[in-house]
Amino acid sequence: MDCNITCRVPEHTSNEVLANQASCHAELTLHEFIAFGGLRSGSLLQWINILRELRARTLTFRDPAVHLLLLQASWQVGKLSADGSRAWHNELKTSEFGHALIDELQSLKVSVEANWLEGTTMSTISVLASRLLSSAEDFRVIDELHKLLRAVRNTTFKWVQELSESDDQDKTSIRKHRARVRDMAAICLSTYDVGPDNIAALLESPQDLKSGVLLCYSEG
């Protein structure tokens, strides 16, 4: 099975993934191959699959390919239903699903917050939280998402500071180091990437504003 296809379109079935196990890349376990290939198997099942994989932790969330898969699944609009709603993303409007997704994202965040090498994982958490926030209707879900995004920002901002203060003077690695700081700052800034209905709640405190200004400076 072509992994590029599994990222782009949710038109394959879970049975097709199982039938193509022989094409599993040597660097992947069979469980990872099935989890990766099956996440987008069925357009109306994608968010259920995302929730399941967040809980199962079979996928390596620091892998950029996994991040891209989740990004594509969460933001691709898909077909509109007769009433104009986004049928692929109806789960995001239900309180039960919203709270369940937040619980898994919070758990994943806690599991990686001590390791700045998990920047891609934090980026995934930010992307999924922002996507849920754009569709959530329950004010309790919305409030919890504001808290989660601020928690992700606090952790990644701390990582930016730690990386910026590193005393690595090896000239051969200074370019990579600067790129790492820049990428981490971009991940932290993504926590501000919300719609006009939510941005005020994420800019409530002086620290919110200060972090944003300093991060823009870091990226520059």
What does the model show?
The protein is mostly helical. 61% of the residues lie in helices and 0% in strands. The protein is built from ten helices and no strands. The chain has helices at residues 3-8, 14-19, 30-38, 46-56, 64-75, 95-112, 119-135, 139-164, 174-189, 206-219. Helix 7 (119-135) packs parallel to helix 9. The longest helix is centred in the C-terminal third of the chain and has 26 residues, at 139-164. The protein is globular, with a radius of gyration of 18 Å.
**Could you give the order of the helices and strands?**
HHHHHHHHHH
Radius of gyration: 18 Å
Give the terminus-to-terminus CA distance: 41 Å
By helix and strand content, what is the structural category?
mainly alpha
- The count of DSSP E runs of length 2 or more, i.e. the number of strands, is 0
Mean pLDDT: 84
Work out the helicity level.
55-70%
The rough form would be described as globular
User: What share of residues are in beta strands?
Assistant: under 5%
Contiguous uncertain segments of 5+ residues: none
Major sheet description: none
Tally the helices. 10
